[in-house]
Amino acid sequence: MELSKYLMPLGFTLLPSLGGYISGLTMKDSIKTWYPDLKKPAWTPPNWVFAPVWTTLYTGMGYASYLVYRDGNGFKGDAAGALALYGTQLALNWAWTPIFFGARKMGLGALEIVTTAGCVAGCIYMFWGINKNASYLMMPYLAWLCLASSINIWVWMNNKPAVKNE
């Protein structure tokens, strides 16, 4: 068996987690110092839930992108547009953590995560015509983004900075 037959799916599958890990490095201090003091909605999962959920979602979306690449004849075939949109949503996904936790821009984070969810919905639609299983693998990710978006928007709306009178 050819080594690339195994390396290609592995590379596609691991890429989202690698980027997520690097992006997550920006939140270590904020998770301990800033985030605990924010008002959060009752439906916010406990912090320990996020790592296993994101690991699972990144694995699913990465493998979905491989299936689309494989069945859509790569970056030059029918999959080109779907993979471009996938790359866009992945870059947006990775950018959210530095925006929300690093820069502490809750409003911009809300706009960014809703945009990400829209791109993921587009991926699901575009993946469907290439590989239905790839679409199914992206659906839990969209559901999680909807939950995360609602939390981000609630936090932004309920943690407005106090205006200083000088």
From TrEMBL:
Keywords: Membrane, Transmembrane, Transmembrane helix. GO terms for biological process: tetrapyrrole metabolic process. It is a multi-pass membrane protein. Pfam families: TspO_MBR (PF03073). It is found in: Membrane. The chain crosses the membrane at residues 6-27, 48-69, 81-101, 108-128, 134-157. The keyword Membrane applies. Its main location: membrane. InterPro entries: TspO/MBR-related_sf, TspO_MBR. Belongs to the TspO/BZRP family. This is Translocator protein isoform X4.
